[in-house]
Design a protein that fits this description.
This protein is mainly α. The chain is 67% helix and 8% strand. Strands 1-2 form a two-stranded antiparallel ribbon.
């Protein structure tokens, strides 16, 4: 059944979650080459880009709760992709050499994901949609 045929098609909650599930499925497929979930992969790229970042800053950037970031980091640490260093009460997160070597493949996955949804909805429509979703999300945070 198409979502537009659902009795709940005029509900933002229902429609946005249906979209999120479909995007998650597409993203999971795109990230298979690196054997990471999209959330783990985006967090890893952020850590590579910002070595020494603190979990709170990573949580803010990724729009996730600190506890979720901790859980994601634990998994990345188990896979020897990040190292968490404690300095007093502060924790800094650093990428490992293994993680840095993956950066090219991680970027390829981002590109593959973008190409996958762009081939379905169009590149321009995808860009407009991302901008619109970001604007709405920012408005909801106020």
């Amino acid at each position: 059944m198409k979502i537009s045929d659902s009795r709940y098609c005029k509900c933002l909650y229902f429609s946005s979650n249906a979209l999120a599930r479909k995007m998650e499925k597409l993203a999971l497929e795109s990230w298979k080459p690196v054997n990471l979930s999209p959330s783990h992969a985006y967090l890893l790229m952020l850590v590579i880009d910002r070595p020494g970042a603190q979990p709170g800053a990573l949580a803010e950037e990724m729009q996730l709760t600190p506890s979720t970031i901790t859980r994601l980091l634990e998994k990345l640490e188990e896979r020897k992709l990040v190292i968490r260093n404690s300095e007093g009460k502060m924790i800094n997160v650093f990428p490992t050499a293994k993680a840095k070597e993956m950066l090219g493949k991680l970027k390829d996955c981002v590109h593959h994901f973008s190409e996958a949804y762009s081939s379905i909805i169009g590149k321009e429509e995808g860009m407009k949609m991302v901008q619109h979703i970001n604007k709405i999300t920012d408005q909801l945070q106020q």
